[in-house]
Design brief:
- The complex is a heterodimer of chains A (277) and B (479).
- With 277 residues, chain A is α/β, with parallel strands linked by helices.
- Chain A has seven helices and 14 strands.
- In chain A, the strands form three sheets. A six-stranded mixed sheet of chain A has the order 2-1-3-4-14-13. In chain A, strands 6-5-7-10 form a four-stranded mixed sheet. A four-stranded antiparallel sheet of chain A has the order 9-8-11-12.
- Chain A is globular.
- Chain B has 479 residues and is an alpha/beta fold.
- The chains are: A alpha/beta (277), B alpha/beta (479).
- At the A-B interface, helix 1, strand 8 and helix 6 of A face helix 8, helix 13 and strand 17 of B.
Chain lengths: 277, 479
Amino acid sequence: MPDLSIQTAGESMPKDQPHYQLTLGHLYPDQLNLYGDRGNILVLCERCRWRGIDLQVRQLGVGDVLAPDEYDLLFIGGGQDKEQAPVAQDLCEIKAPGLWAAIEDDMPVLAVCGGYQLLSHYYRPAVGPDMKGLGVFDAWTIHKGLRVARCIGNIAIEWQGQTLVGFENHGGRTYLGTCQPLGTVLAGHGNNSEDHTEGAVYRSTFGTYLHGSLLPKNPHFADHLLLLALRRKYGTEVTLPPLDDTLEWRAHDTMLRRLRVNSRRQNNQQTAQQANR
Amino acid sequence: MPGSKGNGGSARAAAAVSLGRLSGVLSRRLHMGGGTSLPGTVARRIDPTIVSRLSLQLARGSIVVTATNGKTTTCGLIAAILRQAGLRVWRNREGSNLINGIAAALIIRANLNGRLRRGENTIAIFEVDEAAFPAVVRELQPRAILINNLFRDQLDRYGEVETVAMRWRETLSEVAPETTLILNADDPSIAALSASFRGKTLFYGVNDARQAIEATGKASEQGQTIDARACPHCGADLEYSLRFYSHIGHYACSSCGQHRPEPALSATAVTREQFDRQRITISGPDGSGEALIALPGFYNVYNALAAATVTSGLGIDFRAVLAGLERFRPAFGRGETIEAEGRTLRLMLAKNPTGFTEVLRTLFTESSTRHLLLALNDNAADGYDISWIWDVDFEQLAGKDLALTISGTRADDLAVRLKYAGVSGTVEEHLPTAIFQAINDTPQGETLYIVPTYTAMLAVRGELERHSYTTPYWEGKDA
């Protein structure tokens, strides 16, 4: 029976570690908060706190200008269709200059589900006109009508020789042009349930359909985002002190077993070590 | 439809009832499980009009109850009041709240000639699933419709909250104006439904400012995941002068001026006397009076008010309403207590973020030690997507005096969620093992609180039945 010990702030932090400070911009928290998106933010906050890293979360709502110099990390969640249209307009008009600058300057951005679709060229609904996206990813999404089953269920993908697990629930099918997928589907639907791709990557911007929430059960991916942010700000020497992720990996591995996907945990751990070297 | 009148139609109805009931008998004889809606499925296949045909014969008509949370308890409260008033009450079975379950409830009360058993004082109360509401209401044409609340729940099954509200609006716009609609004034997305209905609407709400968790502020500024923050009429931000929980409270639109309607019946004072004894003062056109209800949690005040309003609206005497509320005892898994091994087990079903958060708030209002078993399943009836646990306010448990067991098919996910809330416990995925472990860890004479999702609740109860601590639901009184 595992004992769930709680790490306290700075427990595993070496005394001589410099004081790191990060600011996370949470885009459209009022409109895009559907699939436990709060979990992703919470995990980033706590994993920083346990390491003595100061992470501030600032909300960026409709109408707020995004000043790229004020942020180190951005998050966009998923929302109801009704709420997505005003968001798309704000994204392409108000946020666009700052967001493009941040993305081209390699700021890590995580966009889940609706947020992922909004960063692609367009979303073509079952009925009605196309909804224009920012076009960061060379990708587009088509909803093939209400009679076509949604892509719903648990999902596992291979990401850089490791696994990511989550839950997907999307009516639209996403197709990639020249941009790279985030990973390859091991079980589940992914972008379109046809070509085995899942998500999209451009520079340090990641789009994915995985929620559940994504980051709690994929601590290596959470730390990857934090490390990208820290190295961008403080230089490539930065390493992340390891945490006790026993519970996180149990949840991850339980889902892999359920989906009958072989664990790539050795890879996962090796990558974590390499990242810290 | 040709043949739907006269001999052809009644012969078809008779066949539908006979074969429907036969399928139910066979299913039980062959131990195919509690297939409570099978007779309805079979009968509707034979006669698609069977529900409207039989429901027209109900002497006192029917009441349809829907909501995200509290459907079963509200129906129980309504039944207690109507029985108090001397009526005979028929209900659909626990968990059989789709159209075929409603059909089954009628068919088991019909004769083999396709006619409903006669009962001059009979009224039917149907608990209806949110998504099944349109089909059920169309076939039943009920005498009263009660809609209590709308929260985010099982997005993989129901779709988005706005989709559910849209279907309800469409359905209500087609309901005959003779029906009475009863709505929660304090839930903005529910109160707004009255605009889609041509007949009479009765509202209910809480008018006790002491129950508010925060005095003022815009819903969207409070950093919580709230389901209805935008005005249902114009989309602007709602401003709350009182907020009781989630998006439930006294609100007004900052832009178009839409505001909470004045309730016909209101709770003017709520006093908690014990964990599961709340005294409510209810005021309405027939005066005001008190009822002591045997339910924990502020959310149950709304269930009681809803039951009082629908029954008052049907002309039940106010004294019978209050007496009926007091007579009620908690339903299956929703605050019921079971004695086992010298401990008291209290089952409190929680199946979505708001429900779970409010159950926890109810448990931890007092500072005494709590022995707690949380069980998270991800079967079809629970919803396959468990990401909603990240929207539950587990943070309120941090630092509490707590002995916690974590179980269910997604125990590992729940353990991670609790870790990030600063809460630790023992993980035992296998529920039957977890129950007895948690009972053993609870001292004699103390209470073990069990908070399960829907199928986890059935599993917990099944296990307790197997050990004869309680009776199976099949043999329960509400057959």
